[in-house]
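Both lines are retained for reference:
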Amino acid sequence: MYAYNKTSSAYDLSAFDTAVKRERKPEKPRSEDSIKIHKTSAARSGAWFKTVIFTAAAVVAALLFVTAKATISELSAEIGTSTSMLEEAKKENTRLQTELGNMVTLSRVDEIATNSLGLQKTAKTQIKYITVYDKTMVQSAGGETNVFKRLKSWADSAAEYLGF
């Protein structure tokens, strides 16, 4: 085990007096009075290994922290870029919607028809009026002589009357 100093020098209060220290010469410690550390001491076994492991863990934690901060910075920059692109797209959409609204007006359709397509407005001489008969009036081209055609026609008219 450990070798302990078994002298009473620990209780010598004159060692703390500065006047006595000047007069006295320092004594060399005796080898039998000093504490010796054995080679298998707890202070010597594995202390350097624990220090290296702790230092390596601290370095790894610091690197992970720096990497996380760098990743957050990159993602924040990407979000900012995407946000600005979104705002530009919204402005462009508003502009295009306004332009589309202006294109649908009758004056714009008339302008495109005359300028781009080469169409002209109709003159009064080009207009011909036709008479359209009422829905109840039907003209047939010829009489149906076949019994099956008459049955089919009757079934079609009955279905039309019933709303099918």
User: Anything to note?
Assistant: The first helix runs from residue 18 to 23. The mean pLDDT is 78. The helical segments are 18-23, 47-103, 106-115, 147-162. Residues 49-118 form one domain.
